[in-house]
Structure formats: structure tokens, C-alpha cells
TrEMBL record:
Signal sequence, start to end: 1-23
Organism: Psychrilyobacter piezotolerans
Keywords annotated in UniProt: Signal
Name of this protein: Lipoprotein
């Protein structure tokens, strides 16, 4: 009987992981088209919400840092997501980060990773691993993003949920400019 309990738990865990991965792809990556007003803005119109993000050309070898704006069609309530892709030689198993600019702001997203975040892991058999996450920002985290965007400089330091490892990535000038534009849309 113990074997069957373990198998059931493993099946449920794998099912959850698969659903989360699919949710990341469906919500953050797929289904966007160019805005008629601004071709650099991409829109996804779902049944309940409108998603907006800036499009960038990334190399498959680059880290990614961008914002996604979600607006509820009925309530007009806006939610801002921070979407990140970490690419490296080994898994970081990210569960928190520091947003580093003129100030450092710590964001622990482990509870959100288990409940409300969209995440995805991907292994490239040849030379690297990738971890993706997108999570809704709290008001104080949005303020920290605004300060970072205003300073035109930023880094993200990822923390591991497994051990004391951390990895720091630079946010590019183009990413910061795109974040400013999404933050402006959020504030309107």
C-alpha cells in the first residue's frame, strides 16, 4: 500500500508541474499579436482578460526580464506580472530574487510559485538549463520596479530554494525601456 501512495503522490506532483508549464506557455508566451496602434506592443485578447507586453528579439542563449500587463475585461482591474527567464550551466531552483538598482528590493515568490505564478523548467541537453517564472507583483514591488526603471539600470540576483547559491543577471537598456512603457500603461 505504501508504494501506491508514493505513486499517487508522484503522479499528482507531475500533473501539477505539467499544468503549470502549460499555463506559462499559454499565458506568457503564446497567442499574442501586434497591436494596431503600436507594432512594438503585443496583445493577447482572451475571454476574460487582455494581456499586453513589449516584444523583443532574444537569442536563445540570453536571460530575459520583462513585464506583462493583464487587464480584466469586466472589472478593468490591472495586474502586473514580472516574467523572467534564467539560463545557466546548472539549475538554480529560484525561489526569491533581489531587484538591484540604486536600492535593493527583495522579492520572495516561493509561495506564489506554488499557488499563483506561472513557471516552467526546461533542460537543453547540450549545454544549459532554463528556468522561467512569471508572477503577479505586489504594490510595493511595482514601486521597486518603477524606481529601477527610472534609474535606467538594474540587475536581478536569483536565490536558490535548495542551497546557498545565487546568480546575478543584468537587465538590458532595451528591457528597461520596455518595462517603462508597460509601467506607463499600468498607471493609466
Amino acid at each position: 500500500m505504501n508504494f501506491f501512495k508514493k505513486m499517487l503522490l508522484l503522479t499528482l506532483l507531475l500533473s501539477f508541474m505539467g499544468c503549470s508549464k502549460n499555463a506559462y506557455v499559454r499565458t506568457i508566451e503564446k497567442g499574442y499579436s501586434k497591436s494596431k496602434e503600436d507594432p512594438s506592443v503585443y496583445i493577447k485578447d482572451s475571454e476574460e482578460s487582455i494581456y499586453t507586453k513589449k516584444k523583443m528579439k532574444y537569442s536563445v542563449y540570453e536571460n530575459q526580464h520583462f513585464l506583462v500587463l493583464k487587464e480584466d475585461k469586466k472589472t478593468r482591474e490591472k495586474t502586473l506580472y514580472l516574467a523572467l527567464k534564467y539560463r545557466g550551466d546548472e539549475w538554480i531552483y529560484m525561489n526569491a530574487l533581489d531587484l538591484i538598482s540604486h536600492e535593493t528590493y527583495h522579492m520572495n515568490f516561493m509561495a506564489r510559485k506554488l499557488n499563483t505564478a506561472f513557471w516552467r523548467d526546461k533542460s537543453n541537453l547540450v549545454d544549459s538549463v532554463e528556468e522561467y517564472i512569471a508572477f503577479a507583483l505586489k504594490p510595493q514591488e511595482i514601486d521597486a520596479m518603477k524606481k529601477m526603471a527610472e534609474s535606467n539600470h538594474g540587475e536581478i540576483k536569483y536565490y536558490s530554494e535548495v542551497d546557498d547559491r545565487s546568480v546575478t543577471t543584468a537587465i538590458t537598456a532595451e528591457e528597461i525601456q520596455n518595462m517603462k512603457e508597460i509601467l506607463d500603461l499600468y498607471s493609466k
